[in-house]
């Protein structure tokens, strides 16, 4: 049997470089704040290059090309941008992309019919339904319809359930939290035995991020909108993952000296000096927190590029699994 590998880090298929390559990811220091910057854009670029090499090898030796199908409902500009970026990323690594665009007033049954076709299509190895869906659709019904073997978003309840259970392995891990953990791995930042705080408890990022940290033997707390004294809890953390969608919520006073900060937030704030009239900031106040933390992801250029890189990784993983390649 042919062997294809990006050197998995652990049993839930994180992509991890070998020890000689870890040295490439020396943390860069921001000269203005003395922050140590975790460069997600650079890591994502390297991961895409690794994936492209594997796909080229797979195509040449066994004639298989991974395929990703995306279903977009409605005309939200942000969703259309995300889908366009995913297609561009697929093209860059050699993944075949299939796209279905449906009107805002399409029925849930129409979406389910397209999912059923992609479930049965052997050239499709991953299916992604772009969220959010219109309010008249049952999001859970739609996500549940995706065959678990092609659930490259990792949102199927069986995948999340396996992630939550000791001794069980999910087929796929949700892309954004997987990208957060991959950044820690690539920069050789220890997780085992550390105290971690996840800010936010969404099904997409917060909860799976907490579960992944637990799997890495961190002691994990979740801070959410009902948490009393969140700053006191957060100040105890060695690792903070912020995914709450509130610009600059985490101030420097919330951060324990030497903590590692992973900022998932991407929030537009008004900026009259910008040509666009706004700029993007994270959930963590970079200017303050970077003076206290030992390492921090920037916004933009931190977690965002990793999310798409992990989607490509999951699609490749699915193709290898379906065709019994290792």
TrEMBL record:
GO terms for cellular component: cytosol. Pfam families: THF_DHG_CYH, THF_DHG_CYH_C. Keywords: Hydrolase, Multifunctional enzyme, NADP, One-carbon metabolism, Oxidoreductase, Photorespiration. GO terms for biological process: photorespiration; tetrahydrofolate interconversion. Pathway: One-carbon metabolism; tetrahydrofolate interconversion. InterPro entries: Aminoacid_DH-like_N_sf (IPR046346), NAD(P)-bd_dom_sf (IPR036291), THF_DH/CycHdrlase (IPR000672), THF_DH/CycHdrlase_cat_dom (IPR020630), THF_DH/CycHdrlase_CS (IPR020867), THF_DH/CycHdrlase_NAD-bd_dom (IPR020631). One of its GO terms (molecular function) is methenyltetrahydrofolate cyclohydrolase activity. Residues 38-153 form the Tetrahydrofolate dehydrogenase/cyclohydrolase catalytic domain. Residues 174-321 form the Tetrahydrofolate dehydrogenase/cyclohydrolase NAD(P)-binding domain. It comes from the Eukaryota. It catalyses: (6R)-5,10-methenyltetrahydrofolate + H2O = (6R)-10-formyltetrahydrofolate + H(+); (6R)-5,10-methylene-5,6,7,8-tetrahydrofolate + NADP(+) = (6R)-5,10-methenyltetrahydrofolate + NADPH. Homodimer. Catalyzes the oxidation of 5,10-methylenetetrahydrofolate to 5,10-methenyltetrahydrofolate and then the hydrolysis of 5,10-methenyltetrahydrofolate to 10-formyltetrahydrofolate. Belongs to the tetrahydrofolate dehydrogenase/cyclohydrolase family. This is Methenyltetrahydrofolate cyclohydrolase.
